[in-house]
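Exercise 3.2. Students should predict the tertiary structure of the chain below and write it as structure tokens, then compare their answer with the key that follows.

Predict this chain's 3D structure.
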Amino acid sequence: MREVVKRYKKVVALNRFNFEINEGEIVGLLGPNGSGKSTAINCLLGLLSFDEGEVEVFGRRVSPDDMDTKQRIGFVPQDLSFFAELSVTDNIRYFAGLYEQNNAKRDEMVREAIAFVGLEKYAKFAAKKLSGGLKRRLNIACGIAHRPEFIMFDEPTVAVDAQSRNFILEGIKEMNRNGSTILYTTHYLEEAQELCDRIVIMDEGRNMASGTLEELIDLVDPTEAVHLFLTDPSDAALKMIAEIPGVVDVSEENGKTVIMLTPPGQHLSTLLEELKRHEIYYTSLYSELPTLNDVFLKLTGKALRD
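Answer key:
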């Protein structure tokens, strides 16, 4: 997507939005509700026209009538998109049939999709009889049954239990290992950190930043916060801590000492060794590394889940 603009009357949903994904990647598209994630996906799918810019998938301009390209794309929407009265098998058969007319090949696709999402025991169940987590699995099966090369997931784990969430995330990893390129939209930070090779942060229709988690954290002058309760928080002890390599700030907050280290993740062991060497004792300690939410907060002034 290059310099894409999408307007809804006076609202600019995509504002010179730029985005790319390479074959074999899992790329996370992060942003709060209303940031433009779903609009960007609909433009990539050819479901939504746009006012300016260019959108290409597999090196071809996106067109609503380009069935050859659509055959290679899968989409798992946030809203459940299947027929409540049909069985699991019949739902998947319907969606596979949109791309494959050969009965034998279509039936093979259905069997593969059911097995992939672990719904073998529920194949004859009406979709409306499934639990929330199983409905999410069926939603995925309907979107991937035709074996697409490029799969877009729009918030696939919304309102599911922890077991179903883990199952879905492991399934996405397996699809990627099998060769699928994945675009994953979410505002769950831990999912993006677990899944994605690269992350794009968007807000108000713009690409605010993109890169690996480490590259994004480097954008915001990151520090690691070490919180500990010293048995003797004397001025001498605090002065000694401030001179330890990697320490950039030492402060006291309600009887707790907060030590800021930079770069994050590289100086904690040195800090502990120096505390021991100088006989500076503490009763408890925990460390906070910078997160995607810190990055987003620095870039936009709001939290990812706002």
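Discussion points: The radius of gyration is 24 Å. The domain at 224-289 is CATH 3.30.70.100 (Alpha-Beta Plaits).
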